[in-house]
Design goal:
The complex is a heterodimer. By secondary structure, chain A is an all-beta fold. Helices cover 0% and strands 53% of the residues of chain A. In chain A, the strands form two sheets. In chain A, strands 2, 4, 5, 6, 9, 10 and 11 form a seven-stranded mixed beta sheet that branches. Chain A is globular. The termini of chain A are far apart. Chain B contains no helices and twelve strands. Chain B is globular and about 40 Å long. Classes of the chains: A mainly beta, B mainly beta.
Chain lengths: 113, 114
Amino acid sequence: EAGVTQSPTHLIKTRGQQATLRCSPISGHTSVYWYQQALGLGLQFLLWYDEGEERNRGNFPPRFSGRQFPNYSSELNVNALELEDSALYLCASSRHRATDTQYFGPGTRLTVL
Amino acid sequence: AQSVSQHNHHVILSEAASLELGCNYSYGGTVNLFWYVQYPGQHLQLLLKYFSGDPLVKGIKGFEAEFIKSKFSFNLRKPSVQWSDTAEYFCAVNAPGGADGLTFGKGTHLIIQP
């Protein structure tokens, strides 16, 4: 069974640009979570999508947004990139219930110059 | 808001030594508890989890953890570590409903010397 996949592996952008990151969940999982792992800040919850809807977001500004498609894959968009957005962005998936175990993908390393 | 504290940021042990990594959380209600591991160059993997029942849970690769509700703790243990256990270890919690996602500790970087 394939795990959570993410693309691209690395992404380099300049300040002010937009970044789009993609995630495909494990087959049968309907919930997708996004986390940011920034140096010195640890792993922080960004967004939760379930059944195509945004269910909750962490303490991040509105320029972090995303969506979930009918096949449950998800996209994270970061607008007006700032230098401090440089981080590893992890996607996780779980079955429908939010408290079920989350399985993580390999991440996308975003570098903002 | 819930928080997770991992006491040791860096731990260095010799092979065959015993391991205990501390994890404390702050949340007044029922929680689900997890330990994840990130081996060098690999992604986060689930080591073990506690939802309910027996507070002593066993995970992969000989790891176990004990949930002590009165101490808000979920410490990770392994009786005899191997060089291949070198990794970053993260404790995480989420509350029933899980709407806030997982709350992670800052992680413990474990180095096992051969």
